[in-house]
Amino acid sequence: MQKDKSLKVAVIVFPGSNCDRDVATAIEFIIGHPVIMVWHRDTELPSVDLIVIPGGFSYGDYLRCGAIAANSPIMRAVKTKADSGMFILGICNGFQILTEIGILPGALIRNVNRRFVCKDVLLRVETTNSIFARKYTIGCLVCLPIAHSEGNYFADKATLDRLDDDDRVAFRYATTEGKADMSVVNPNGSVRNIAGIYNDTRRVLGLMPHPERLTEIALGGIDGKLMFKGIMEAFL
Amino acid sequence: MIINKSSPIALDVIKAHGLTTEEYQRLLSIIGREPNITELGIFSVMWSEHCSYKSSKKWLKLLPTTAPWVICGPGENAGIIDIGDGQAVVFKMESHNHPSFIEPYQGAATGVGGILRDVFTMGARPIANLNALRFGDPSHPKTRNLISGVIAGIGDYGNCVGVPTIGGETNFHASYNGNILVNAMTVGLVQTDRIFYSVATGVGNLVVYVGSKTGRDGIHGATMASTEFSEDSDEEKRPTVQVGDPFTEKLLIEACLEIMSTDSIIAIQDMGAAGLTSSSFEMVSKSGLGIEMNLDSVPTREINMTSYDIMLSESQERMLMILKPNNEEMARAIFEKWELDFAVIGHLTDSGRMVIKHHGKTVSDLPIDPLINASPEYDRQFVAVKKRQMINIKNVSIHPPIEALKTLISCPDLSSKRWIYEQYDYRVMNDTIGLPGTADAGIVRVHGTNKALALTTDCTPRYCVTDPREGGRQAVVEAYRNLSSVGALPLAITDNLNFGNPEKPEIMGQIVEIIKGMSEACNVLDFPVVSGNVSLYNETNGEAILPTPVIGAVGLIYDIKKISSLSFKKDGDIIILLGDTKGCLGSSLYLRELCDSEDGAPPQVDPNLEKLTGCFVRKLIFENNVTAVHDISDGGLLVAIAEMSIASGIGAIINAPQNEMLSHAWYFGEDQCRYVLTVSPDLASIVLSTAKFNKISVQVIGKTGGDSLILNGEEGISVTELKQLNDYWLPDFMESAS
């Protein structure tokens, strides 16, 4: 099996993170060497190529999802790195933190039905122009799990138009026929069925679905594996 | 506030603490004086039914608790079984019935929190949660809100802590209208050389409090007017339901597992029911030592807390540890890293007494061993339960099978529980195999290996009420079948025995018979009980719940490539019915849902035959001879087949044997020890002949294919319609106006 030594990954660990081990295990299995776990009180990041902000309930999600984490010492360092072009992947709670700190636009609010929802959903790949989506094809459908109470993406019209115009919507919730227009009922009420977005340099991806949860046949699928393989091969 | 030691305890205060006059007299003779209010509080919780099992102890001794693979049976925080490779599984189930009825969200949430602590206190990382829920009649005005609160409470707690909730059961019956059941089970994984127990040893070792601060929540004595023991008596009754904080629990898990990876902990115990009192007493009673504690050092979150408050608080997310003195600073650093309270509140002594100080005064000085050893054990009166007669199936009205199936598949008990499990994060930890509803048991991989655990909870209360002995047996064998159906070797069980008032001889009769039935089945199946919980007094206005002995079971899968699920896999597979069909409709769902009767003797259980058949099924799965397996239980054969169709979208053609039996008995009888299998046509003859060789009844009843379920080439229903009927009852019910 091809094992690439060059991709270095850090996973941020907050008190209350609970997908930190999951994403680390999934990435390590794919890249073949350990990732670095970084504690929330640290003020400096190790020298890496990719920072992952995992899912979970950072600081209990008290106040507002991701709000306290966005003010943690390590996130100040992440913000600086983001400004200088670091690759960052925020999954679920990580996406919420990235919007709270302003690295990504918009906000993730309470699901429309006000319930936690855990299920596998279909996503339409909207663009492949990033290291995260380079192994997918535009318009293809991928199956990834969601598990959240606050995954309802919201932004003002100008922001949404800009995301669309700049081709920065990464994934939309879609039907089995690949439809993702206004008529589609998505699992959390997200505006324009948005499940994930890029920042303006396309180096930061935030998404509610969990790619790390479907990287093995034994767990039900490998659609998430392609994201990590793509990142790894970009650094070959 | 200072307790006046000399003031005698009033009779009504003794009664309000749930102690009988005889129990109070016994207490006086042990300590040789009148207790003060703090001491009375300590006695009352130590001798409560919850802590002492005084009504059930005599009968629980009948249950087998040992096997070569059992590392730790009942008596510790949870049971432990060996799964090889230096690994062990720690598990237990516990009820939180009453709190969940009073305040469904917090009651259910703290139920999950408590059972998680029972497991990680033994050194195990929790890897799966299950829950067995019983709600009242859907038409009862409270049912909808109770479901909504309980599910959100279970989900929010487990989801935040990051432990997948992977299985369980939800039933409805009017007997639970005023007394729902919330039974939560946690399963954890531990290295066999890293197991922690609660025996406090080593005079001079430190007694350390970690976790959340102590508040006044959950103090049982809140039923009393506080004027009777407090000067500042405007503090009226406080809510007795505790409030959970899963975020703190998550930190506590990580901090405890981190300190457990060092060699500094002597013993550890969570503060569950009866809080600091029972945790400290239990830890020292096991070693014969004494303990001296200073309550001034206990982290509190309210001002002016009395020693009574502190000793009896049931604030959540707290643990008590015994540490070697020279490890204090290292341990403190770990808990400070996780931003949790850490306080040395006392030390172990050789006095055999519990001495508690507060504000410079000794507020309690009690002998430990006599207190624990003298805890009452009752041999309560019981009368044999009047068993129901076998019903004559000729007197049961016959509905067209497809019409009856439509009613059954959409009835509350059999309808899809998707609305529930989609609120649980069943994938976190990334080791969940198979989605909810696709197999007879939930499955989690043992992290980093090719092994997996199969987990299930089972009980059929309607059998337990019409024939407790058979009902007790049946709960055990159904768990055994569910594990066998996925290819897992059944290893051990935990039980959660929910009953009415044991002081009524007919309730005690149910308890005795059910435990005997369970014991018989467990003995035959080599299926020991390694942990459990008894919940009594589940009654409202004198009406008891159906007897509900829930079995939580654990099985081992040696290779995750050898697992079976219940969905049909492809067109053209042969459908085989394994086991003997007698057509028993007594106490069946058919009778209840279509004939409005809950009468009749339930199906008989033959544990020896269950063992033989279960072994045979596991062998078929292990040798890759079957494509799908589903055990036959609630609703009978046709419901089982419909579920296999719904899970896959693939139809089936079923040929009922002609003239053998009345159709409703054949399709909907709930005879035990049966499975539906599908096999590739080329393997069918081998499977049939080996079954016959093993003297197991077997018959081909149809084949898979198409998009409809067709009976005898005539009646049919599309799988799409079946799925809709099955899917929509619960969401429609939850979203309709109350």
Topology:
The complex is a heterodimer of chains A (236) and B (738).
Chain A: E1 9-13, H1 20-31, E2 36-39, E3 50-53, H2 73-83, E4 87-91, H3 93-101, E5 107-109, E6 117-125, E7 141-148, E8 152-154, H4 157-165, E9 169-173, E10 194-198, E11 204-207, H5 225-234
Parallel strand pairs in A: 1-2, 1-3, 3-4, 4-11
Antiparallel strand pairs in A: 5-8, 6-7, 6-9, 9-10, 10-11
Helix pairs in contact in A: 1-5
Chain B: H1 11-16, H2 21-31, H3 37-46, H4 49-52, H5 57-60, E1 70-72, E2 79-82, E3 87-95, H6 97-102, H7 104-120, E4 125-135, H8 143-161, E5 165-172, E6 181-191, E7 206-211, H9 246-260, E8 265-270, H10 275-285, E9 290-294, H11 307-312, E10 318-323, H12 328-337, E11 341-349, E12 353-358, E13 361-367, H13 368-373, H14 401-409, H15 418-421, E14 432-433, E15 442-445, E16 452-458, H16 461-466, H17 468-485, E17 489-498, H18 505-525, E18 529-535, E19 539-540, E20 543-544, E21 548-557, E22 574-578, H19 589-595, H20 607-622, E23 628-631, H21 637-648, E24 652-654, H22 663-668, E25 675-679, H23 681-693, E26 698-704, E27 708-711, E28 715-718, H24 719-735
Parallel strand pairs in B: 4-5, 9-12, 17-18, 24-27
Antiparallel strand pairs in B: 1-2, 2-3, 3-6, 4-6, 7-10, 7-11, 8-10, 9-11, 12-13, 14-15, 15-16, 16-21, 17-21, 19-20, 22-25, 22-26, 23-25, 24-26, 27-28
Helix pairs in contact in B: 7-8, 7-9, 8-9, 9-12, 14-21, 17-18, 17-20, 18-20, 21-24
Describe the overall structure.
Chain A has one domain: Rossmann fold, CATH 3.40.50. Helix content of chain A is 22%, strand content 23%. Chain A contains five helices and eleven strands. In chain A, strands 2-1-3-4-11-10-9-6-7 form a nine-stranded mixed beta sheet, with helices on both faces. In chain A, helix 1 packs across helix 5 (225-234). Chain B has 738 residues and is of the alpha+beta class. In chain B, the strands form five sheets. Chain B has a seven-stranded mixed beta sheet. In chain B, a hairpin with a 3-residue loop joins strand 27 and strand 28. Chain B is globular.
